[in-house]
Amino acid sequence: MTTIGAELDAAAAARVQDAVEVLSGRRIAVLTGAGVSTDSGIPDYRGAGAPVRTPMTAQAFLGDECARRRYWVGSHLGWRAFSGARPNAGHEALAGMEAAGIATGIVTQNVDGLHLQAGSRRVVELHGAMRRVHCTHCGQVFDRRAVAAVIERDNPWVAVPDAVALGPDGDVLPESSDGFVVPACTVCGGVLKPEVVFFGEFIPAQTFREAESLVHGSEALLVAGSSLAVNSGVRLVDRALRRGMPVVIVNRGDTRSDSRATVKIDAGTSEVLTALAERLV
Q1: Collapsed DSSP state (helix, strand, coil) of residue 99
Q2: Which residues are catalytic, by number?
Q3: Longest C-alpha distance within the chain, in Å?
Q4: By mean pLDDT, which of 158-162, 170-174, 186-190, 217-221 is the weakest?
Q5: What is the CB neighbour count within 10 angstroms for residue 150?
């Protein structure tokens, strides 16, 4: 076991100790955001240096063929780079906490699937997952790898550049989408859409109920790598606070719930989660 705070400054190390005292002996629900995956090479939405984003809306995707074509070019290029990401120390620390019976599971706002790759078993993916694609007409679900193979067969000119400006959702702003053949459902010919929640869409009710159930079955909430700018995260913090649960927030920079947190640690998630796991497991 390494010494607590070996990779943290004195202030952060002290706050980690405060968090250990709050979380010890409690079953912990975990809520994660994009900040957990930055050490895996996936950029944050709102952190320093984050790319300016104009997210695709569900309305534009479904109603505009040109917008849909632009989206699929960028999504394919980004997914090829995005899919090569691997779990970092933060993901692994959380998986270890779950395996030890300390963490009850993870609710994540991320679509990268890295918690599952790290070995976490109970993961509620609030915003969906890039690894699946579904038909908006008949509901058939496809593996993203199969769809990527069709895209590359029908668009052999589309090459993945050595370095792409990757977005948090695994997308890239393409230079051009002219001539791109959009993949269609092989069952009914309908419109295919990655199984992620687009801007302007609602989280499926069943998914949010699963997230609530995980929080309600726990005794503390640990928020890691989320600014809580999205209402779904704030709602889960609200649920925890209403039940009298302590809330620990780990995030670089401010969040919408800092004033209500039992402990706030302004530091990197990989270092803090590793330190917490070392003390709690």
Answers
A1: helix
A2: 127
A3: 60
A4: 170-174
A5: 15
> pLDDT > 70: what percent of the chain?
87
Most confident of 73-77, 184-188, 200-204: 184-188
Which amino acid, 81?
A
The pair of three-digit structure tokens given for residue 10, joined into one six-digit string: 């004195």
| CA dihedral sign, ordered 163, 168, 173, 178 | positive
The phi, psi pair for 160, rounded to 5°, reads -85, 120
Torsion angle in degrees (nearest 10) through CA of 174, 177, 183, 189? 140
Tell me the whole-structure pTM to 2 decimals.
Answer: 0.88
CA distance linking residue 62 with residue 182, whole number of Å: 13
Q: DSSP letter for 6, please.
A: T
Residues 30 and 32: their CA atoms lie apart, in Å, by 6
b/e per residue 241-273 (b: at least 16 CB within 10 A):
beeebbbbbbbbeebbbeeebbbbbbbbbbbbb
- 141-143: strand order across its sheet: 141-143, 128-135, 192-196
The full set of domain ranges for the chain reads 10-280
CB 252 within 8 A of CB 266: yes
pLDDT of residue 166: 47
The b/e string for 7-46 (b: 16+ C-beta within 10 A; e otherwise) is bbeeebbebbeebbebbeebebbbbbbbbbbbbbebbbbe
**Distance (Å, whole) CA 223 – CA 264:** 9
Class of domain 10-280: alpha beta
Cα 193 to Cα 196: distance, rounded to the nearest angstrom: 8
Which pair of tokens denotes residue 130?
A: 């890039």
pLDDT digits over 44-74, tens only? 754 444 445 567 889 999 999 999 998 898 8
Q: At what angle do helices 231-242 and 205-216 cross, to 10 degrees?
A: 30
pLDDT over threshold 60, residue 97: yes
